[in-house]
Each structure stands twice: as structure tokens, then as C-alpha cells.
Here is the input.
Amino acid sequence: MRHPLCMGPQSSYHPTSPQLAALCILKGVQLFKNFIVILMVLFTVKSYSADVLNHVGIVKQVVAFPHSYGSYSVDAKGLLAIYVEGQPKGCNTGQSRVVISTDHPLHNSVLSMALLAKSTGKKVRIAYFNECTIRPESWDFAYFYLLE
Here is the structure.
């Protein structure tokens, strides 16, 4: 919002001192800088957001395994991999699976739905981010639907 002393001809007071005029210019420059920062943030968020892809098919396999192999630890993070028939390879080079970590808030629900889909042969829609950050060459989980 403009300072009342910085208003144009519609205001009853016009800045006459050079200091007041400089203050009005600085306020305008600060508003412009804020606008530029907001634009930069918006463009940065868009450029770093991953696309969400999805695939419809029948669950062929559900596999659970530790995030990193080595010695056994109850504190180790686990992963759940869901293989859906005809799904593209992870990041176009890896395995045809979507992974979700055991510490993800939807892990238990996704596990239940994947096992139900596998045991009944019902079609699912599995969505995944167009990136492989959780496990190299495996799609990152986005959401999961039972279709039938």
C-alpha cells in the first residue's frame, strides 16, 4: 500500500521536500523487489515440481525389502515395491515398479490395497512421480486406486 504522503495528484498533499520524494521512490523500489521475489519463488516451485504419471493394469507382484542391504536392523527403513502389468521401466531404464517407503503415512493403506488387488486380480491405477529418488531406477509413489 502506498504511503499517504506518496500519493499522486489526487491527494491533497504533494511531497515537496527531496527527502520525502526519495522516500516515495524507495517505497516503490521495495514493492517492485518484493514482486520480483514472489515471481522467482513461483517459477522455482514450478521448475522443481515433478510431473505425476499414472498407469492402469493388474498388480503382478508386491515386494517388501530394506532400503539398503547389509546387516539386519529393526531401525532400518523399508520399501514396498508394486509391479503393475505393462508399467514403464523406472525412469525409462530401471525396473517396472513403483516404490513407497515404510515411513510414508499411506504405506499401510497402500500395502493393503496392493495385496487386495493382487489376490483378486482387480485393475488398479497407480500414479508415480516422474523421478526415481527413493530407489534408483524405481518410480516414486504418488497415489493408488482400486478401479473395479
Residues 4-48 form one domain. Residues 71 and 94 are 25 Å apart (CA to CA). Helices lie at 18-48, 107-120. The chain has two domains: 4-48, 52-146.
